[in-house]
Fold this sequence. Notes:
Blueprint: H1 7-15, H2 22-32, H3 34-43, H4 46-61, H5 67-74, H6 79-86, H7 93-113, H8 117-122, H9 125-132, H10 143-148, H11 153-177, H12 191-208, H13 212-230, H14 244-263
Helix pairs in contact: 1-3, 5-6, 7-11, 9-11, 9-12, 9-13, 12-13, 12-14
Amino acid sequence: xxxxxxxxxxxxxxxxxxxxxxxxxxxxxxxxxxxxxxxxxxxxxxxxxxxxxxxxxxxxxxxxxxxxxxxxxxxxxxxxxxxxxxxxxxxxxxxxxxxxxxxxxxxxxxxxxxxxxxxxxxxxxxxxxxxxxxxxxxxxxxxxxxxxxxxxxxxxxxxxxxxxxxxxxxxxxxxxxxxxxxxxxxxxxxxxxxxxxxxxxxxxxxxxxxxxxxxxxxxxxxxxxxxxxxxxxxxxxxxxxxxxxxxxxxxxxxxxxxxxxxxxxxxxxxxxxxxx
Length: 276
């Protein structure tokens, strides 16, 4: 081999300033020429070389984003927000598949019993459960990072995770509602209770934790339904929470819970999950 890369070209190569086509020739030649590789090592800044190796190690060790995270970044969501959403336990396929199966089974039961009560009773609990499972040390794989990250706790739980979970949960509930066209607007009587339960569960989270607070709200909802069933006149009558008066109360509770969330938003930064 009689041709070698000129020293000045090697220096430009080391600085990343060598332009094509000399760059292509130098790459090919260096792969086969130990002499030029030795000269290149002598003209390379060791500090810049160490920094380059560190960048390479960081790139190799960085986790590869999944399809969901990649989709979120493609639609314009920031990388760190997409990572938080992708790590949300209840946005994974296993949870969503379970919710779909449960809704399908409930819709099937409604067609069998010819009453939407079971669906209306269950649908508000699904978004509440999703929010309860989306944040906390026991279930969230990114919880420790979220606690020490410079991210407002209210923004993490409410603005990012809760909205995403609500969109997924309410969307699936809405699709299930389309399978009950015979009940008209009555099939949407779950919506206001769902917002009321979720908002109340979130308002209790700073004091009781992301699991206990929503669990108590869910238990209270079941108790209200059982109490309403005891005063139901006939099986064909809607339960009290699904009447016009009940819907009005649910809307008022949802509005009150939203106001409380706004007032208590700073307390989410003090919550460390110990109540979970």
